[in-house]
Design goal:
By secondary structure, the chain is an alpha/beta fold. The chain has nine helices and 19 strands.
């Protein structure tokens, strides 16, 4: 009889039967191991949570007073004989790959990841395994990122230009991960950084967790257009097109996303400028990460799963598509932002 795999996909998430725990479950379970704090991976309703130490305050902020245990990279826990170890994923602060070991069999669940060192996350660390569960959000050859320094050179030049024109620069990016990456790479000699309430709340949670961030000013009902003029505002995508934006006039709107690599994406988001900046691995990053694991089998959870699995099969991997509920951070963030200072 064929040996049962150490991890399997069921209606609740990625399940380890031997350890009786789930990784990033999307329905309420007894015991959940969490890769990172984005809402498609960290859901409310589990009885127990295990996550990285730097995810602690974000999880409390987003999910309330849950039953949460945390550990650092390289630390391990044993659940019913199954060894669980966290390794850096490089996606956002506190993001972890989950290494699961039992009787010589090793699986790694990557969650979401990127391979470029962004200066704020602990850089991605490949982990050798037999089976690797990977995202492929940008698993097409068209998605190849420029070095971060080049992207932020463009962002800072755009801000300076808009300041010279007497406009406020409004830059959209996900509130957890992307916003902080933007913040830490802006040229603060140009002006001040203002934030939307959703960004501010994420920043405050990360600061409580010991992460140092550059200074920002929260936009409130008392903030005037004159205060904002010439400065830069970081907001979540969910704020675009809402009455909140009226306070920014006159403004120029920029959008930070990997999707900006595709012709027409900027127009669909009504942006004046699109900056190709992603917290996910690009085509080359995905392939290099998978090769570095020296795995035999790859399970693809979300993104271009069909085409990317075909490519991996062609170069010698046992590549399989897995049906999950992980996906678009932008849509999930829009749900989270309802009622938060919009």
């Amino acid at each position: 009889m064929a040996k049962k795999p150490l991890l399997e996909f069921n209606q609740n998430g990625i399940y380890c039967a031997q350890g009786d725990f789930y990784i990033d479950p999307w329905r309420p379970v007894k015991d959940a191991v969490i890769t990172h704090g984005h809402s498609d991976h960290a859901k409310w309703g589990h009885q127990k949570y295990l996550a990285h130490t730097l995810s602690r305050e974000i999880l409390y902020h987003r999910l309330g007073q849950i039953s949460l245990e945390t550990m650092d990279y390289g630390e391990s826990r044993i659940k019913n004989g199954v060894k669980i170890t966290f390794y850096p994923a490089g996606h956002i602060p506190g993001s972890a790959q989950i290494k699961v070991e039992y009787q010589g069999e090793i699986w790694v669940v990557s969650g979401d990841y990127k391979t470029e060192d962004d200066g704020i996350c602990t850089p991605f660390e490949p982990v050798k395994c037999h089976s690797f569960i990977s995202e492929c959000t940008f698993g097409m050859p068209v998605y190849k990122w420029q070095p971060q320094a080049e992207v932020f050179k463009g962002i800072n030049e755009w801000w300076q230009q808009k300041q010279n024109e007497g406009k406020t620069s409004v830059l959209a990016g996900y509130s957890l991960g992307k916003a902080q990456r933007i913040l830490q790479n802006l040229d603060l000699n140009i002006g001040k950084v203002f934030t939307h309430g959703v960004i501010h709340n994420s920043n405050e949670a990360l600061i409580r967790n010991g992460i140092e961030l550059n200074p920002t000013t929260l936009i409130t009902v008392l903030t005037t257009k004159e205060e904002l003029k010439g400065n830069i505002v970081i907001c979540p995508p969910s704020a675009i097109g809402t009455p909140w934006m009226r306070k920014m006039n006159p403004y120029s709107f920029g959008y930070c996303s990997g999707w900006m690599a595709i012709r027409g994406a900027k127009r669909r988001r009504a942006a004046d400028r699109g900056f190709v900046l992603s917290d996910h691995a690009d085509w080359d990053g995905l392939i290099s990460a998978i090769k570095a694991t020296e795995c035999d089998t790859v399970y693809l959870t979300h993104g271009y799963t069909a085409s990317f699995s075909r490519y991996l099969s062609e170069i010698g991997y046992d590549a399989r598509e897995a049906k999950t509920l992980y996906g678009n951070e932008e849509e999930n963030e829009a749900e989270e932002a309802k009622g938060e200072n919009l």
